[in-house]
Amino acid sequence: MADKKLDPVAATGIDVPFIEVYGAREHNLKNISLTIPRNQLVVFTGISGSGKSSLAFDTIYAEGQRRYMETFSAYARSFLGGLDRPNVDKIEGLSPVISIEQKTTSRNPRSTVGTITEIYDFMRLLYARTAEAFSYVTGKKMIRQSDEQIVNHILENLNGKKLIVLAPVVKGRKGHYRELFEQIRKMGFVRVRVDGELLELVPKMQLDRYKIHDIEIVIDKIVVNADDRYRLSNSVQNALTHGKGTILIQDAETNETQFFSRFLMDPESGIAYDDPAPNTFSFNSPYGACPNCNGLGEIQELTEDAIIPDKTKTIRQGAIAPLGEYRDLWIFHQVEALLKEFKAKLTTPIKDLPEDAYKILLYGLDEELEVKTKKGTYAVEFEGIVNFLRKQMESDSENIREWISEYTRKVTCPECNGLRLKKESLHFKIDQKNIGELSNITIDKLAAWFEGLEDRMNERQNVIARELLKEIRKRIGFLLDVGLDYLSLHRSVRTLSGGESQRIRLATQIGTQLVGVLYIMDEPSIGLHQRDNEKLIKALQNLRDLGNSVIVVEHDKDMILNADYVLDIGPGAGVHGGQIVTSGTPEEMMKSGSLTADFLSGRKGIEVDKTKREGTGKELKLFGATGNNLKNVTVAFPLGKFIAVTGVSGSGKSTLIHDTLYPILNQFFFNAKRDPLPYKKIEGLEFIDKVIEVDQSPIGRTPRSNPATYTGMFTDIRNLYAQLPESKIRGYTAGRFSFNVKGGRCEVCEGAGMRTIEMNFMPDVYVPCDACKGKRYNRETLEVRFKGKSITDVLEMTVEKAVEFFENQPRIQRKVKVLNEVGLGYITLGQQATTLSGGEAQRVKLSTELSKKDTGRTFYILDEPTTGLHFQDIQHLSEVLRKLVDKGNTVLIIEHNLDLIKVADHIIDIGPEGGDAGGTVVAQGTPEEVAKVKKGHTPRFIKEELATSIYREKQAS
């Protein structure tokens, strides 16, 4: 490592060259001891479930965290009593540890790329200190003047004119203002100007309370001349005091008026802004947020189609969905009375109602409506169904708000156009751009705008902005380095993939410029196209060159080959793993006979079928998709084939599939509420009978959820235990073996097996239950055994063992077998959902769908199914997906992994770039056809991959 920029010892202050781990036994680790070189880029690789994360996160990171916690006071540590030290003898040479995992940072809609990278915070400060204000009425530049400047301006420009000096006290507000007039009279003033008309103040004076008024106090009438400067100055100061910093001058002859202010003011219209502060530009602060959408950029809007979905129905039959079928309710009596006015009834179909009746039904009536009931006749104001529901949206009841949300859709806020800020904040500009516009453009365009900004700013702005611009450019540069140029600062964090949020945190960490830290990362290459992989590797090497140690848990070929040191963990998964198979430089590791080395060196590989599937000959065709960055895309999906959708990050793959195609299919087959992004039409829906999407969201967010419950297998297992002779003697039903209901479960932990310790300001901590020691059930339930195993033993059994254990139980075995086939033989049936990785959760979902009896006309959509998978597991997965397609189904994957892309029958490549430069179909066809295309980035990589691939003559049946 002769090219290091820093001496590691000098940089870190730790004079040991290695991190030494002795006797690691966490989860499936087999009492391993190892040395990891410090200040190098180290990759942990190996088959999925072999123990990489157990070593990196549950041992090394957990010990680093524990040592950090030890620095807390005894009082603070008393809250952390349930935190155990990892199962390891000792670790030496450990630096402070920072973990960057795949978990999405926040589910909060207010958390954006700009806020978590702090770029937006620096931009708020930049705008608060250097931006110029413009009027939202006239568009002219706002000005501020001192008292002396106002007097000088009047003397220079209005000399010899007869002026009225006015102090504005009310501007554009309703009210009678009786008390205000009385107060002004008591201060000694005799005249006021009301709505442009000069009036004498008289006792009990008042205005029309329902009209909007402007009121100014007449401070002085004066003929301007230089000799009378003292009087003019006094009048101006007096007016500014009463007008709270604003003054109005009226020409007594022409009635022309002119505003002046100590604050930012538009001299033409008289509107003034408060002095800007950083929170003026914060959409999370009431000082800056758009009042209409509260800074979210979108609002819930009630839609007529959702309120009245079927216009052929009558109101009595329930045509108005929120009200349902007719009942003896006050609202139905009002509707009945309204329809009577138009000679219609509750039994009249909505489509046959007169246009006026329909509009009034939805939006209300201005005059009073006479409603007759058994109890008498009432005159009421009918507000309309839409207005009634709008009021309910503000209800304190969560249930009511949830009920209303069924009839709404999210639309861009019409007031701020999705920019999240109030109009005053959006009229502060630097180089003709407001902060909202900058936040909505892609990072690469933002970087280009900041380039050379000093030349477009004045001298004063440059002095203030110098240091701020350095910080902003540096942070934007880090985002570009990790391949996130297609994101915008306003992009909500909850819409990011695991890989994207992880790379944002990586960019933020590089920005902190810490030295002597151990960074541990979980597959940062997820969701990254090969083109952007080089940028990521360079970013990690920069982190190392600063004087840090970097450990990456990774399966990516490029990452492994560019590492300084590789640790291959295995040889198998779960109980078959947990050992160091080989370690050393990538060159040394390649020479070993490990499974990883075989795939890296090309000795093993996923075979490609020479003959592609012909499919069913039918296709699903989507016309004119224009959501987000899609450029009027029309694309055909051939049915009965294995389809791969590829393209660089941000090119529009997710927009096309997740946000357009899937919602269309979901609405068609299952009447889903979520609307697809804009498109013209779709053809071929009759050729498929259902759609199934398998994404990477967790299968559950609590320890109660596990693979057995998610796949539905646990219901069959409970039924099996309830049928045992012992259960029948004791009168136990299937419910006795559920850990979610009272009866057979441990009541101390309520069947969770874990107790939740609330940490107040920190995430909750789960510790094993003291009573049942994590077994979830009480003693009596555990006495019932099948083949010598209690229900807890079954939950603790690996999938692999369960295949043998349930060999004579076909219903259970079918589900267990599929879990085993997708490469999850090492997980236990009762493993908590919270401990499964994104890739594992996705494969549990996939196996659930595969174990169902398919119809041969199903359309499967998978989002990066190779996440967290070793080359060997990808081979298993490709075989499972091929089988699914061979039955006549269509499998569509969004993927970057070339091992899976090359075995597809049909590729649709979106691009050519990310963001605005993407959104078109670059290439489509078989992998061999796409490889010949000269445009875009994917064909080049497919060509290289196919050149080294092994072809097989016959398709797997």
TrEMBL record:
Domain ABC transporter, chain residue ranges per copy: 606-943
Subcellular location: Cytoplasm
Major subcellular location class: cytoplasm
Keyword ATP-binding: yes
Gene Ontology CC entries for this record: cytoplasm; excinuclease repair complex
Keywords recorded for this protein, A-Z: ATP-binding, Cytoplasm, DNA damage, DNA excision, DNA repair, DNA-binding, Excision nuclease, Hydrolase, Metal-binding, Nucleotide-binding, Repeat, Zinc, Zinc-finger
SUPFAM superfamilies: P-loop containing nucleoside triphosphate hydrolases (SSF52540)
Taxonomy, superkingdom: Bacteria
Alphabetized CDD domains for the sequence: ABC_UvrA_II
Cross-referenced InterPro entries: ABC_transporter-like_ATP-bd, ABC_transporter-like_CS, ATP_grasp_subdomain_1, P-loop_NTPase, UvrA, UvrA_DNA-bd, UvrA_inter
Statement: the UniProt record of this protein carries the keyword ATP-binding: yes
GO MF, one example: ATP binding
Single Gene Ontology BP annotation: nucleotide-excision repair
Family: Belongs to the ABC transporter superfamily. UvrA family.
PANTHER family: UVRABC SYSTEM PROTEIN A
Name this protein carries in UniProt: UvrABC system protein A
Species in which this protein is naturally found: Adhaeribacter soli
Gene name of this polypeptide: uvrA
